[in-house]
Sequence to fold (220 residues):
Amino acid sequence: MTIELAVLVSGRGSNLAALLDAIDAGGCDARITHVIADRDCPALAIARARAVRGSIVAPRDHASREAWDGALADAIGDAPWIVLAGFARIVGARVVERYEGRLINVHPSLLPAFVGRDAPAQAIAAGVRISGCTVHLVDRGVDDGAILAQAAVEVRADDDPASLHARIQRREHVVLPAVVHAIACGELTIEAGRPRWRDPSGGAWLERAAPSDEDADPTR
Ligand code: GRF
Fold:
């Protein structure tokens, strides 16, 4: 069953583009009904170029954080699923409570390691050999909700934060649409805030479906 999504963005919008591409290619049974940004950003331009409704709900246009949070909830409205695809702000209690269990985030590390900003830089500074991406539910904590899917990425000796982030994003662009599709086809359900996969491997197929480093552009 096709599911409807509101997508929250702040930045470049490569995850938004990956979702739209997967939908157009028939690999993600979803429809993006609204893209909401906290600022003018390239992601919003992608939405508009692809005939998806786009709006800005900027904190500076609201008297308080609570007022902004309320305006964000109003903009999301009755969207059944909400994807935070590079949304650079912590959503407030009003949004989290209203949409709990239906709010999905993508983060560029293997959570619970490296929460918050600059996760690829944190991974390099910590000297880990493997990092990756996590698609998870949003709860009241920061990068803290139940994990839906992850994919691992090798950290290379010559990586800088930008090169590692670029390889992690290649995985994000596969795993995020795959999670949305899994929800749409009933493979993945959220029961009492906990993810439940229909297949006994717990959705491990999805993590393997992500492209491997060997597929990466050798010039990058
Ligand atoms: C992604 O790496 C995501 O994990 C993080 O923000 C980045 C957004 O990138 N939350 P983009 O705007 O989708 O290109």
